[in-house]
Amino acid sequence: QVCVVFSEELQCWCRAVIQSVQHHMDRYQLGCFLVDYAKYSFVESDNVRVPVEMFKKLPYRAKKCSLYCTKPLTLHLDFCADTAKIGPAKKWDTAAIHHFRNLLQ
């Protein structure tokens, strides 16, 4: 469900999908995906609002996407046979994501 959150980092209100809730001392922080900026951000629970119907109908400026025909790979280690082979993985590992972001920059 899409809600409206105030991002301290961006200093504006934007649409977001809440993905996690964390309790910090006497308040809650929500992990959100900002749909118009394609960013993940944490916001205070006080900064969350229900969107106006007209606001929900606006098209998103950013969309989640994936690379066409690109599958995640990982290094499989076999300690018994003392071998290492690259093979398919269920999701991208952190090092691959970091390397890809560096290539884009």
TrEMBL record:
GO molecular function: ATP binding; hydrolase activity; RNA helicase activity
EC number: 3.6.4.13
Taxonomic superkingdom: Eukaryota
Gene it is expressed from: Tdrd12
Keywords linked to the UniProt accession: ATP-binding, Helicase, Hydrolase, Nucleotide-binding, Repeat
Protein name (record): RNA helicase
Organism: Sclerurus mexicanus
Tudor domain span: 2-68
InterPro entries, per the entry: SNase_OB-fold_sf, Tudor
Catalytic reaction annotation: ATP + H2O = ADP + phosphate + H(+)
GO biological process: germ-line stem cell division
